[in-house]
Amino acid sequence: DFGMAAFVGRDFSRVLTTFRGTKGYLAPEWLSGVAITPKVDVYSFGMVLLEIISGRRNLSEAYTSNHYHFDYFPVQAISKLHEGSVQNLLDPELHGDFNLEEAERVCKVACWCIQEDEIDRPTMGEVVRFLEGLQEVDMPPMPRLLAAITERSHI
């Protein structure tokens, strides 16, 4: 859900900001009411990167007998990244045909993009340099929001 911040013509006396998007791909700013910047698109891009490398949706939901359960893949992704087992995140359709160093780099970039504080997210220019291998990517921290989601995955 890229480019969600739209420009409005001069004849409007006020701008009403509402958001639309796919659950699991929206940056926290959309829910908190703070100013929307291009970093919301960086967040969404990170979510898409995770979906591309894993071959699965980032949010899956299920209702079993008496409780609602959701699986939020970004939590698994950053956990596996920190454990050093990125290969377990990759799309099984790849059948092991991937460069592990590049896969780890993409996963790191994605996890930096989904940091809850926009200041911690890279710019898209930095994302490009990271993905091209022109700039080193440090290990991203576990976002507090993702840690909280992990603890509350059963509702």
From TrEMBL:
<dbReference type="InterPro" id="IPR000719">
    <property type="entry name" value="Prot_kinase_dom"/>
</dbReference>
<dbReference type="GO" id="GO:0005524">
    <property type="term" value="F:ATP binding"/>
</dbReference>
<dbReference type="InterPro" id="IPR011009">
    <property type="entry name" value="Kinase-like_dom_sf"/>
</dbReference>
<keyword id="KW-0472">Membrane</keyword>
<dbReference type="GO" id="GO:0016020">
    <property type="term" value="C:membrane"/>
</dbReference>
<protein>
    <submittedName>
        <fullName>Os11g0208800 protein</fullName>
    </submittedName>
</protein>
<dbReference type="Pfam" id="PF00069">
    <property type="entry name" value="Pkinase"/>
</dbReference>
<feature type="domain" description="Protein kinase">
    <location>
        <begin position="1"/>
        <end position="134"/>
    </location>
</feature>
<keyword id="KW-0732">Signal</keyword>
<keyword id="KW-0812">Transmembrane</keyword>
<dbReference type="GO" id="GO:0004672">
    <property type="term" value="F:protein kinase activity"/>
</dbReference>
<keyword id="KW-1133">Transmembrane helix</keyword>
